[in-house]
Write a structure and sequence with these properties.
single chain; 267 residues; alpha/beta; Rossmann fold; 2 domains; globular
Length: 267
């Protein structure tokens, strides 16, 4: 047993989709969440910059005496997770492989769509992970860079979001995919809009679900699960304070959250 918290980070509030699934899967665990809101988005940054930012995020989380890191950012998971695992002596889990496995399990036609930031799409992390599992699957990917600022503005269920989704997703519809991976942790906040555009016959995959399950497996295997008993603590930190993080985050998690602002450049 280990009562230290799980550390989770993302470039903004999108990683709260992973926190939500962790709270379901591991309700007894303490969690420390960091949103790098001062430097959002990560999706259009170089691999070197994303890796440097991610290392700073992990060093901050380590200052909170965490026992494991969950990278709740597809861009960082696709570009930096291998490098980060060699730098830090702590279990580190990304979101790519859990999402890829869930998509392969879900598809009936063998035609999978992947949407994400430009960084995630250009990395080809999802197609590579999917084809490692089943090389016969056709993967069609599409960068949807405007989805992140739409979510951060709180416009997930607006006409702006719908029109943007129609433009981005037209190619996937024409390719007749039956499964779409929401390859950015912000995108589950657009799930209703994306589902309307793609139609009822298309399964949407939220990698956060599989990531939460794999987090449990890692903790159990290493005997790091928290001892049940006292009320778990979930703490939130950001690198730039904004009302939208607390407002949207509180609504999404269905709990009041208060975030402390820290200087990430110190780490």
């Amino acid at each position: 047993m280990d009562n230290r918290p799980i550390g989770v980070f993302d470039s903004g509030l999108g990683g709260l989709t992973v926190v939500k699934e962790l709270l379901k899967e591991l309700p007894d665990e303490n969690i420390v969440y960091f949103g790098d809101t001062a430097r959002i988005p990560y999706g259009n940054r170089s691999r070197e910059i994303v890796t440097r930012y991610s290392a700073q995020c992990i060093r901050f989380l380590l200052s909170k005496d965490i026992k494991m890191v969950v990278i709740a950012c597809n861009t960082a998971s696709s570009s930096s997770v291998e490098t980060l695992t060699t730098r830090f002596d702590i279990p580190i889990l990304g979101v790519i492989r859990p999402g890829a496995k869930a998509a392969v399990d879900a598809t009936r036609s063998g035609r999978i769509g992947v949407i994400g930031t430009s960084g995630t799409i250009h990395s080809k992390a999802y197609p590579n992970a999917i084809r490692e599992i089943n090389p016969d699957i056709l993967v069609i990917d599409e960068a949807c860079s405007l989805f992140v600022p739409i979510v951060e503005e709180g416009w997930s269920n607006t006409e702006v979001a719908h029109l943007t989704a129609e433009r981005y997703l037209d190619h996937l519809k024409k390719q007749e995919v039956d499964t779409v991976v929401l390859g950015c942790t912000h995108y589950p906040l657009l799930e209703q809009t994306i589902s309307k555009v793609m139609g009822p016959g298309v399964k949407l995959i939220n990698p956060a679900v599989g990531t939460a399950r794999q987090t449990r497996e890692v903790l159990k295997k290493r005997n790091l699960l928290r001892e049940p008993g006292s009320e778990p603590v979930v703490s939130f930190y950001v690198s730039d304070f904004g009302q939208s993080f607390q407002r949207i985050g509180s609504h999404f998690l269905n709990r009041e959250i208060a975030a402390d602002c820290i200087d990430i450049e110190k780490y």
